Amino acid sequence: MTQERLWQVLDASWGDPRILSTLLCSSVAAVVLLKWLERRQIQQKMKEARRARDLALERMEKAARRFKQENPGTQTAQILSLTMVELVEKLKDGSLSPESILYTYMGKALEVTQEVNCVTDFIHGCEDQLQKLKNQKEKGLLYGIPISIKEHVDCKGHISSGGMVKFLGQVKEEDSVIVQVLKYQGAIPFVKTNVPQTMINYDCSNLIFGQTLNPLNHQKSPGGSSGGEGALIAGGGSILGIGSDVAGSIRLPSSFCGLCGLKPTGNRISKLGVVSPIVGMESVVPALGPMARDVDSLALCMKALLCEEMFRLDPTVPPVPFNEEVYTSSKPLRIGYYEGDGYFQPSPSMKRAVQETRKLLQDAGHTLVPFVPPKIDYMVDELFTRGIFSDGAVHLVDCFKGDIVDPNLKSQFNTYRLPALVKRISAIILKPIYPRIARDLSALCGVGSAKNLWDQHGAVEAYRAEFIAKWRKLRLDVILCPALGPAFNHGYAGKLFAATSYTNLYNVLDFPAGVVPVSTVTRADEEELKHYRGHYGDPWDKRLKEAVEGAVGLPVAVQCVALPWQEELCLRFMKEVETLAHSMKRNV
């Protein structure tokens, strides 16, 4: 009898003393029984967390229904149709109330999560926050704007699990710095959103809260790890969200769901009060940033966050306020561009999106210069993969103690937990057949010593200097490049972690990078995809082709990049791309 079959028997006969005593007579069965008991305890914790979520959503639904009954004339459709900038103006002049907006979005968020399972908690303190706003004389830049928060960002009175059982039951005693600053600016955090287990994945599934679907096509992933944010905003249930990004976790769901998203320079926004499975990893730089339906919303959010209150709460954040003059400039730009990175061949729609955007920018008077990212294979394998898993993935694997691995993560997890010797031998065997996969396995062994870690950090610095030198030589202002997409079919993200090469480059470099939707997948793109071979012809190339199949009509984005601490210039470039893409759609 297999272990799985034994567990099924135990589940069916739980509480029968005859079966339990019989099993305890066998030492092997006793070990299985102990494992089963541990598994049952884990499942019970998950069940309790789901029950807490359901009760929170019931409370949210009652509050939204009560407001609707008491205010039958609320113009729900009108509120949901307004941009964030328009909402801010109407809140400022009093033509709309914070109550009408908050409860409207609460109702819409409930609708969206019933469809795609994206909300994990109701931040019930939002109603108290609403009352406090009424008594405040000063109106912050985000006065009355409801905001959704990625699940692992701390909110007082709520858990931040990161999709992991080990963090369940740990109710946070205070808000993260970013949430405190949002409240200071008058925003109202009202829900927390789903993430993949451990968040080192760009799908959006965990065994606690389940799989989140893409609202544009339920057969597709919303991306991740900020996938709950992507799904909720794309579904219309939030107008502004806070995500995080260590390999593309803001930019990928924004690409998959047709949103705008910004990954700032790592320390431009405080990260105090955020749960992570890889605390202490310094080689690849994570960041918190905004996700929304348009670039102006991202800019307003950044302007609100970069204030004295953030600099006071976290003195490690450089006290540099938002530069409005840079964002609103209309000076022509000198733009580097590339259509592929040489590591993963772009899908046809990814490549077309860059080509069309390049032409639009050229026609608008900007200068476009071809750019080739240096040593991309080296960057992905030796700087990103060996860097983020510099400990040989030990910290990440440890997170699964007392947990059950989500099926969508098993491919990654099974590779990570292999002994270093097995990874090295496998890499040697695979090198002649699948050199890219072999290099990845070798990199997953980590650095091996403190000396090697110092060397690895030095290599990142040297690569950054080389990249900037090439940028300066071409006298570039910004770079235009592909964003991975379109949205993947379910189950593929965990088997293609290395396909984040287009986004993880800018975490290694610690450059601000944003994503803007510019087009949709055409039937011609889908037809061309049939001839996709990739650069290596290995299983990863085959999987990427399968991952993006069946995406006609789904959004396609481009990525916009600036040098460190130049978020305003990055956003200005994103705004230019957005404006030109919209004008092209109107003229078609």
Automatic annotation (TrEMBL):
According to its UniProt record, which reaction does this protein catalyse? (9Z,12Z,15Z)-octadecatrienamide + H2O = (9Z,12Z,15Z)-octadecatrienoate + NH4(+); N-(5Z,8Z,11Z,14Z)-eicosatetraenoyl-glycine + H2O = (5Z,8Z,11Z,14Z)-eicosatetraenoate + glycine; (11Z)-eicosenamide + H2O = (11Z)-eicosenoate + NH4(+); N-(5Z,8Z,11Z,14Z-eicosatetraenoyl)-ethanolamine + H2O = ethanolamine + (5Z,8Z,11Z,14Z)-eicosatetraenoate
Keywords for the protein's UniProt record, in alphabetical order? Hydrolase, Lipid degradation, Lipid metabolism, Phosphoprotein
Question: Mind listing the GO molecular function terms for this protein?
Answer: amidase activity; fatty acid amide hydrolase activity
Q: In which residues is substrate bound?
A: 199, 225, 246-249
Q: Which InterPro entries match?
A: Amidase_CS, Amidase_dom, AS_sf, Endocannabinoid_amidase
Q: Where is the active site?
A: 150 (charge relay system), 225 (charge relay system), 249 (acyl-ester intermediate)
Q: This protein's superkingdom? A: Eukaryota
Q: Which GO terms describe its biological process?
A: fatty acid catabolic process
Q: Read off the Pfam families from this record.
A: Amidase
Q: What is its EC number?
A: 3.5.1.99
UniProt keyword annotation of Phosphoprotein present: yes
Q: Where is the Amidase domain?
A: 102-571
Q: According to its UniProt record, which protein family does this protein belong to? A: Belongs to the amidase family.
What name does the UniProt record give this protein?
Fatty-acid amide hydrolase 1
Per the UniProt record, the source organism is Melopsittacus undulatus (Budgerigar)
